[in-house]
Design goal:
globular; binds flavin-adenine dinucleotide; FAD-linked_oxidoreductase-like; FAD binding; alpha/beta; about 10% strand; Mehydrof_redctse-like; methylenetetrahydrofolate reductase (NADH) activity; 9-stranded parallel beta sheet; 9 strands; about 325 residues; Fadh2_euk; 11 helices
Length: about 325
């Protein structure tokens, strides 16, 4: 948080990278190779997700430890309440504390695969607010606590195609404020593709007295089907111009990727121009799009990017 606040004051944009635990040992080793390369560009921190339903608990703890102590990047670990009685939560927090990790993204979590509703486990927590309170009560100020924010409201609260009603949106914001008041000191947002929605969300947070930094979660479009799946799952609004840019190129993977880089670059430019100085990139464990966006923004040194990579400068929208 101190780094982010300093960046805002000094007008110096920062960036961070999010990864998820791969399914195989080989995948884990590949991820570390990629991460070492990406970390050489100087992210302010990197984070590792906690698999749905706690499915990757041991692996997430192990990867977080390697990130902090072997890759030597400031690490944030995600932690969810799904299938986690308090003893297991404490074990995870004690482990990362012993490993020198000081940043946690406190989440309720999604239901495990195959279930459609979150169910509070016996002896566990019902929501992220409870987890934030628990971490502050038990560990004092040791951890920097981040929470999730939803510029379009949480998808569970959204009915139909029109997005959240004003009442739902306002309740969601009020609940976010409770998470911050309970001890969270940073908000990272759910992915979005409409910058105006994000900027309004930041403004609305400020209006109700949320003063901590709000970091936009940016997911570069890598692949058309994946983009539809994620935006469908999160009930994200897709601006008409993005739909019409993607429609004619949807079967051309390289063109979609190049458009994703172009769009990501433009989104980040607008965000930075509006005074928000930290960009959180959902890398989906790939490096090309995230690095290309940062290069286009002038935030990383182009000369360090291997010349063999053909995607080096996809500044312009692809030809259709
Ligand atoms: P909460 O903040 O507890 O609540 C979600 C919503 O429910 C709130 O926005 C609010 O609308 C409502 N709500 C809950 N409690 C109350 C209350 N007491 N009063 C009023 N309203 C309430 N999932 C994973 O499994 N692993 C991950 O690593 C992971 N990382 C994520 C990272 C980010 C940046 C984001 C945005 C999401 C991530 N998720 C992850 C998904 C997340 O777990 C889901 O969105 C989950 O459904 C909600 O988690 P939460 O922490 O936002 O929940």
């Amino acid at each position: 948080v101190e780094k982010i606040r300093a960046a805002e004051v000094e007008d110096r944009p920062l960036f961070s990278f999010e990864y998820f635990p791969p399914k195989t040992d080989e995948g884990v080793e590949n991820l570390f190779e990629r991460m070492e390369h990406m970390v050489s560009y100087g992210p302010s921190f990197c984070d590792i997700t906690w698999g749905a339903g706690g499915s990757t608990a041991d692996l997430t703890l192990d990867i977080a430890n390697r990130m902090q102590n072997m890759v030597r990047v400031e690490t944030m670990m995600h932690l969810t309440c799904t299938n986690m009685p308090v003893e297991k939560i404490n074990r995870a927090l004690d482990t990362i504390k012993a490993n020198g990790i000081q940043n946690i993204l406190a989440l309720r979590g999604d239901p495990p695969h195959g279930q459609d509703k979150f169910v509070q486990v016996a002896g566990g927590f019902a929501c992220a607010l409870d987890l934030v309170q628990h971490i502050r009560d038990k560990y004092g100020d040791y951890f920097g606590i981040t929470v999730a924010g939803y510029p379009e409201a949480h998808p569970d609260m959204i009915q139909g195609e029109e997005g959240a009603s004003l009442e739902v949106y306002n309740n969601d914001l009020a609940y976010l404020k409770r998470k911050v008041d309970a001890g969270a000191d940073l908000i990272i947002t759910q992915l979005f593709y409409d910058i105006d929605i994000f900027l309004k969300f930041v403004n609305d947070c400020r209006q109700i007295g949320i003063t901590c930094p709000i970091v936009p979660g940016i997911m570069p479009i890598n692949n058309y089907k994946g983009f539809l799946r994620m935006t469908g799952f999160c009930k994200t609004k897709i601006p008409a111009e993005i739909k019409s840019a993607l429609e004619p190129i949807k079967d051309n993977e390289e063109a979609v990727k190049a458009y994703g880089i172009h769009l990501g670059t433009e989104m980040c430019r607008k965000i930075i121009a509006n005074g928000i100085k930290t960009l959180h990139l959902y890398t989906l464990n790939t490096e090309k799009s995230a690095l290309a966006i940062l290069m286009n923004l002038g935030l990383i040194d182009e000369s360090k990017i291997p010349k063999s990579l053909p995607w080096r400068c996809p500044m312009n929208a692809p030809s259709r």
